[in-house]
Amino acid sequence: MTCRELTDAPIAAFNVITLEHAEGIVAGAEQAGLPVILQLSENAIRFHEGPDAIAAAMVAVGASAGISVVLHLDHVTDVELAMRTVDLGFTSVMYDGSTLDFVGNVRTTRQVAEWGVGNGVWVEAELGEVGGKDGAHAPGVRTDPAEAARFVADTGVDSLAVAVGSSHAMTSRTAELDLELIERIHAAVPVPLVLHGSSGVPDEAIAAATRAGMWKINIGTALNVAFTGELRDWLTANQGVDPRKALKPAREALAEAVAHYLRVVDGQAA
Ligand code: G3H
Ligand code: ZN
Prior knowledge:
Layout: E1 11-15, H1 19-32, E2 36-41, H2 42-47, H3 52-63, E3 69-76, H4 79-82, E4 92-95, H5 102-119, E5 122-126, H6 145-155, E6 159-161, H7 179-188, E7 193-195, H8 203-212, E8 214-219, H9 221-237, H10 243-265
Parallel strand pairs: 1-2, 1-8, 2-3, 3-4, 4-5, 5-6, 6-7, 7-8
Helix pairs in contact: 1-3, 1-10, 6-7, 7-8, 9-10
């Protein structure tokens, strides 16, 4: 399954850190009966000291799922890693040149996008804050619609992550999205739009963002809040040493969060 077959409706993408994340995400998607994107970030790859084992686990979990699954490499800054997408068994990659200046970001993103065309890989990219260090998803950063349109035309990317009020790693859901800006970028840019840092965005705002033209909704931290919260509760209340006893409720809590988010993104609940 590739992103190209899933552009008709908004879709949620969830970050995988451990095998239990991958299993829980697929279980949640099966509960909701909706397709899902499993994404593996360069940071998570660093944690595993290489992509091969965790990517192989994701391929296996995806292959036995009862719903459609897309496997995506996320926030890749290393072009060589981006070009491993196919041999890892994935069909989609986000090349993240957001901390580069506009010209450098265009140059490298275009190189990855051209490789993507030749290899049947969907390429997502992101525009950085001019002069900024934290990319497009630091609080307060906003994407300019005309610049976004130029970036897409100059690079040939398949989808674009935009800065419209969310920021990464929020554990409170207090981000305020600029819906009017989403509409303006959606009108100016001919490719599907991606919202990063969606854990900080309330359900109603996620639903409104999809109605305004947002396509892919990236969620990571919120799953860790559910997963780690359940682990902590179990470990606080129990003295056992079998990790499965704690991991099982944690994985179930993660699956429940996934099912909920998928329904919100699908417009069923908010
Ligand atoms: O690329 C991943 C997402 O942007 C996740 O962000 O952990 O803040 O939900 P989040
Ligand atoms: Zn992100």
